[in-house]
Amino acid sequence: MEAYKTDIIVREDGTIVIENLPFQKGQRLEVIFLEQSKAAGDDETYALRGEPIKYSDPFDSVAEDEWENAN
After folding, report:
1. d(Cα 28, Cα 60) in Å, to the nearest integer?
2. SS in 3 state form for 2-68?
3. Contact criterion met (CB below 8 Å) for 10 and 16
4. Residue 16: predicted pLDDT
5. Closest CA to 15 of 3, 28, 33
6. Cα(38)–Cα(67) distance, rounded to whole angstroms?
7. According to the model, what pLDDT value does residue 71 have?
8. What is the pTM of this model?
């Protein structure tokens, strides 16, 4: 059995449209709908995702003791 997963949003009229399925015309499919829940810990795991990045003096030299701490 081949599985295909996609995320869709229910339209205002309560319908969904799934296009470009990787199955043959006329092929029987079993369809199961699962409400997508927010995964626990996503915000904590990637707390800085989407935040702007700023490098202060990216080409400035680094002291030898600071370089050793970075490794």
Report:
1. 63
2. CCCCCCCCCCCCCCCCCCCCCCCCCCCCCCCCCCCCCCCCHHHHCCCCCCCCCCCCCCCCCCHHHHH
3. yes
4. 94
5. 33
6. 39
7. 58
8. 0.43
pLDDT beneath 70, residues of the chain: 39-44, 69-71
What pLDDT, on the 0 to 100 scale, is given for residue 32? 92
Q: What is the dihedral of CA 44, 45, 50, 54, to 10 degrees?
A: 100
Residue 61: both structure tokens together: 């030299």
Q: Are 6 and 24 in contact (CB under 8 A)?
A: no
What is the pLDDT at residue 6? 87
